[in-house]
Design goal:
alpha/beta; five-stranded parallel beta sheet; 5 helices
Length: 175
């Protein structure tokens, strides 16, 4: 569920707001994370209290750019959630947030869930905010890269078509 009004407009810098999804089974954590981004005008916040709820949000909002998930939750663990989230939103930048130091979980988060970062609770607000901003920048680069690749592919198709037409014209004139 989104905590911000739908923002279709671009911000001052001309950027579309990045959608950020927080998934944690503790309501107090979700409230703290929501407050952390309250002044970030270029971010729209969504929250889910379980991995299953997070997947439903991703299915309805596949352009979520940053996902921050708790590791230890009832039902789907953070790693299991991120692994499924990666299939729905493969270009999102995924972050694991956990209160438990578990090397195996960190390795799984990176290998299975494609996690960009692994952050320990309790977090320092400025550090987590910078990590989320960095993740948002990374997502913007991914989106821009995909857009440029599409342009290049379209231009290559047009160039190939022009070359074929030119070759046909040259062949026609030489005959």
């Amino acid at each position: 569920m989104s905590d911000a009004p739908a923002r279709e407009k671009e911000n001052i810098l001309g950027e579309i707001p990045i959608k950020v999804l927080f998934v944690d089974d503790e309501e107090n954590i979700l409230k703290a994370l929501r407050r952390l981004l309250i002044d970030e005008e270029d971010m729209e916040v969504f929250t889910a209290s379980s991995g299953e709820e997070g997947l439903k949000i991703l299915e309805s909002e596949p352009d979520i750019g940053v996902i921050v998930s708790d590791q230890r939750m009832p039902g789907l663990s953070g790693v299991d959630f991120l692994e499924k989230a990666k299939k729905i939103a493969p270009h999102s930048v995924r972050i694991v947030l956990t209160g438990y130091a578990d090397v195996h979980a960190a390795v799984d988060a990176i290998n299975r869930g494609g996690a960009y970062r692994y952050v320990s609770k309790p977090w320092k607000d400025e550090e987590l905010l910078q990590i989320i901003r960095d993740a948002a920048s990374r997502y913007r680069l991914i989106v821009e890269n995909r857009r440029l690749i599409q342009i290049i592919n379209q231009q290559n198709r047009e160039l190939k078509s022009w070359n074929e037409k030119l070759e046909a014209r040259v062949k026609e004139q030489t005959e």
